[in-house]
C-alpha cells in the first residue's frame, strides 16, 4: 500500500529520505529543490490534491480534506467570535479529568494549524507545518504536562484546554491554551502559546 494516500501526514513524509520525497515530486512534475521540510510540505500538498474527494454529507470529512473554510468550520460549530469567553476570566473550573476532554483528533489540529485563516497579518492559510510537527513531537516526547480542561458552563458550546510545556533548550515552562467547540464537528477557535515562536 502506498504511503501517499488520504491519511498521509507531514510527519509521515518527514520520516522518508529526502531522495524519496524528490522522487515523488519528480514523478508529479513538481519542483524537487529545497530543504527536507520544504519538500515534505510540497509533497503533502500534492498528495492532498491527488486525494481530494468532495464529501457527500459529513462535515468532519470535509474538514479532514481541508476543503472547509475557516468561516464554514466555525459556523458548523455553532460558536461565533462574540461567544468566545476570555481564558483570563476563568479563575476556577479547571480539571485534569480526561473523561471531560472533547475527542479532538490529530486531523482537527492539522485543520487549524495548516488550513485555517487565523494569521495575524492577513487572511491566508496559516500553513504552520513546522509548528504542527514540532508540537506533536513535543507531546510524544513528554514535554507537555499539567493538561487541564475548563468546560466553562454546562450549556456553553466551547471549552478551553491548557497545558505547560518544558522548553527543549532552556529552563522554565511555556503556557499554551486552545479554545474549541465541545461537540462534533470539533473546531479549534483560538489558540495561544507563550513561547517566542508564538
UniProtKB/TrEMBL annotation:
Organism (species): Tegillarca granosa
Biased composition (Basic and acidic residues): 61-75
UniProt-recorded name of the protein: SAP domain-containing protein
Region (Disordered): 54-80
Classification lineage: Eukaryota, Metazoa, Spiralia, Lophotrochozoa, Mollusca
